[in-house]
Amino acid sequence: MSSHEALTDQTMERIEDLIRDRRHATATDTRELTALLAQPPIQDIIALVERSPVVRAAVVLRLLSRKRSIEVFDALDAAHQADLIGALQHEDVVDFFGELDPDDRVSLLDELPAEIADKLLSNLDASERDITGIVLGYPRGSVGRRMSPEVPLVHPDMTVAQATEYLRDVAHDVETIYTLPITTRDRRLVGVCSLRQLFTAAQDTKIEALMEYAVRANAHEDAEETARWFLPLDFLAMPVVDDSERLVGILTWDDAQDIVEEADTEDTARSGGHEPLAQPYLATPLLKVVRSRIVWLLVLALSALLTVHVLDTFEGTLAKAVVLSLFIPLLTGTGGNTGNQAATTVTRALALGDVRKSDVLAVMWRELRVGLILGSLLGVLGFVLATVVYGLPIGIVIGSTLLAVCMMSATVGGAMPILAKAVGADPAVFSNPFISTFCDATGLIIYFLIAKSVLGI
């Protein structure tokens, strides 16, 4: 570790000690804390705020310089910002809110109670309020809700010299100048030009000679789907248009990356059986963590009653061949794992656009064959081991059940995310927890039916 890193670590430890002891802090401690907060890199301060309870995080923001505190606040998730609003002084909140970009401002407003949101909007100047209102006018989950409406208006009949002079004047008031949408005087999008092209062209060159076809998105399109096809193109930004092809904003690469990261976080959480926290773990109030999990636990507990009912139905079969109970964990675990593997794979393929809703039959047929191969391999292994220990009839039951369960679980696991998307539900919701429960119950039914047939009980 370098001396600079060691110094930073010692500084951060001292900062955390002073924050924890704020109740007994003296004026000297406050001055020391203010001085120490100016030393570490900005990323360390952001991490400190994310790891701290709301009240302590608010203290940090108040003691930072105005510029530094705004940078830290801007880097936080919208849900975390919303929690901090109540702990900050009114003038701090107004400053932070006013410095946010319009799209980030709207994300924060979505997390706040209506009365607080209205109060914050009323403190904006008229121009900022109008710009924010443009973004608020689009539906949640749409590209328009995540775009920035602050874009330069460069026209085809401008020369490079005119465009450069114009960009110099508006550079601080727009989201980006590195990707330039080219529009007619009535804002109709006709092309796009990069800043590199502008700087390398002769001053008297017309913009129309430099512009290229503009890959664009409609403001009403789904934000996640748009972000997923936009990111692989490696563009810095993309124009956003309305139904009349008029420019209404721009979607930057980093905003698209945020959209995808939020969607992936949500899918990961739901596939694991809980709601996403939407803010750093250590900064999340305890009751919010409980709420994110309890509903799913109750749903899964109720659905598990189906498995109990199946066992109760075949209680007589178990009583006649007790050895069958030994293999229940193996068979239910194999079915659940096979279904989860298929569901996870297909959910990811849906997110990337590799699979569409119309591909449900092709996916089911593909997963059926995958399940057949996996089931054959596991079935042969189960047949050999069960036969050696418990005899040929039990070996046949275990081998046959593993084959059937793998085929069923893979097929169902592959189909469920697509069916969920078709009815407008989140594919991740139909993933691991529900598939495990479904495969447990149906796997046991298959198991006992095969056992009754083979063993004659």
UniProtKB/TrEMBL annotation:
Main localization, broad class: membrane
Cellular-component GO terms for this entry: plasma membrane
InterPro entries linked: CBS_dom (IPR000644), CBS_dom_sf (IPR046342), Mg_transptr_MgtE_intracell_dom (IPR006668), MgtE_N_sf (IPR038076), MgtE_transporter (IPR006669), SLC41_membr_dom (IPR006667), SLC41_membr_dom_sf (IPR036739)
CDD domains xref list: CBS_pair_Mg_transporter
Topology of the protein relative to the lipid bilayer: Multi-pass membrane protein
Keywords on record: CBS domain, Cell membrane, Magnesium, Membrane, Metal-binding, Transmembrane, Transmembrane helix, Transport
GO molecular function terms noted in the UniProt entry: magnesium ion transmembrane transporter activity; metal ion binding
This protein's record includes keyword Disulfide bond: no
Annotated ranges, domain CBS: 147-210
Localization of this protein: Cell membrane; Membrane
Assembly: Homodimer.
Family, per entry: Belongs to the SLC41A transporter family.
Name of the protein described by the UniProt record: Magnesium transporter MgtE
Protein species of origin: Corynebacterium spheniscorum
